[in-house]
Specification:
This protein is an alpha+beta fold. It has helices at about 15-20, 30-40, 50, 105-115, 120-140, 170-180, 220-240, 270-275, 300, 310-330; strands at about 20-25, 55, 60-65, 85-90, 95, 120, 140-145, 150, 160-165, 185-190, 250-255, 255-265, 285-295, 335-340.
Length: about 350
């Protein structure tokens, strides 16, 4: 195709430019329309499919697709096997201190290897985040400019799903809908956002000089735990029967699965537009149903190379999470997004 070539007198990027930009490498089977739809989830005004360049801000853009010929791969620091690239046209703005914010040492090393001068931030940070999200969703990779390191994100890492809707489901109705697909489901009326598995930097241990440091798993006997659970259940039942007005609650299920229900004011513009007919007023909050999987170590959810056991458990819970998301999307006529903010077709669930 003539557009892909680098001919004199055209606006096509040179090999030097492609080498100086971060490149999102995607399989040749991925159509530009697919990339365009995903980019619009974050940048609604972009028109990549029409103009071959999507503005990502004042100083950043995504251009492409650019076809790289086999004899050009070495010049643009792209490994063999890739032929289609989308360029992140943005100036480098490294922040060396940002590495300290990455809790997982392996993930920190992953970033430092690709960006030795500092983790990208500002416009570059947003652009790289988009590039990695596109690579993760579409089975691709990101070639970092300068270092030439190829970052292949974990394509199955994005597991959580969110359903956005103008319709509110009461706890008893939500439980009725999800009990068939989420074993062990029960309603929890505590404040949303607290549903994370406990995490400790070091395992609890008994110290002879610090009896309060005993393993908390043994601090309460079975009768104590049963009493606490009974009181909590009684409180939940009383709240439901008494007609307490809720602005959020959760449902938990076996396998460390949580469905959090909250009213959200900060809503992507394209999502609000899609659910606007369900709202009494255009500025009303949108209800979100977030289907999440939590683990005892939150760093594992961010890892690009999690242990095999985590991958195995992730595959085990995925069908239940997708079934729950589909059920909620059908019941609320909602819009489904993944944790990267990209829309998910409910019928693909």
């Amino acid at each position: 195709m003539a557009w892909f070539g680098r001919r004199a007198g055209t606006d096509e990027p040179t090999l030097k430019q492609l080498r100086g930009w971060h490149l999102v490498l995607l399989p040749a089977t991925v159509d530009v329309a697919q990339v365009d739809r995903l980019v619009r989830s974050r940048y609604p005004d972009s028109r990549l499919a029409d103009t071959r360049k999507a503005r990502l801000g004042r100083h950043a853009a995504l251009s492409g697709p650019h076809e790289i010929e086999p004899d050009e791969l070495r010049d643009v620091q792209v490994p063999e096997g890739w032929s289609v690239a989308y360029a992140l046209e943005v100036e480098s703005t490294p922040d060396p201190q940002a590495f300290e914010d990455i809790g997982d040492p392996e993930l920190r090393a992953w970033w430092m290897r690709a960006f030795p001068l500092g983790k990208p931030f500002r416009d570059e940070g947003d652009a790289v985040d988009l590039g990695l999200a596109l690579a993760r969703r579409l089975g691709g990779a990101l070639r970092a400019a300068g270092s030439g390191v190829l970052l292949e994100p974990d394509h199955d890492r994005v597991l959580d799903l969110t359903i956005w809707s103008g319709f509110w489901l009461d706890p008893d109705r939500l439980l009725e809908l999800l009990e068939p697909v989420l074993p062990g489901a029960h309603v929890d009326l505590t404040v949303p956002g607290r549903h994370a598995a406990p995490h400790h930097d070091t395992p609890w241990s008994v110290h002879p000089l610090d009896p309060l440091g005993a393993d908390l798993a043994h601090a309460l006997g079975d009768p104590d735990r049963e009493l606490i659970e009974a009181v909590a259940a009684q409180h939940d039942a009383h709240a439901l029967e008494g007609g307490v007005v809720l602005d959020g609650y959760a449902l938990t299920a076996l396998g460390s699965l949580v469905v959090e229900v909250i009213q959200e004011d900060a809503v992507p513009s394209w999502v609000r537009e899609r659910v606007s007919r369900q709202l009494l007023a255009a500025t009303n909050p949108v209800v979100t149903y977030s289907v999440r999987w939590v683990t005892h170590d939150p760093h594992l959810l961010e890892s690009e190379d999690p242990p095999y056991a985590v991958r195995l458990e992730r595959e085990r819970v995925k069908p239940r999470m997708r079934a729950a998301a589909l059920t909620l999307a059908e019941a609320t006529a909602g819009v489904v997004t993944d944790s990267d903010g990209f829309e998910v077709d409910r019928y693909s669930l």
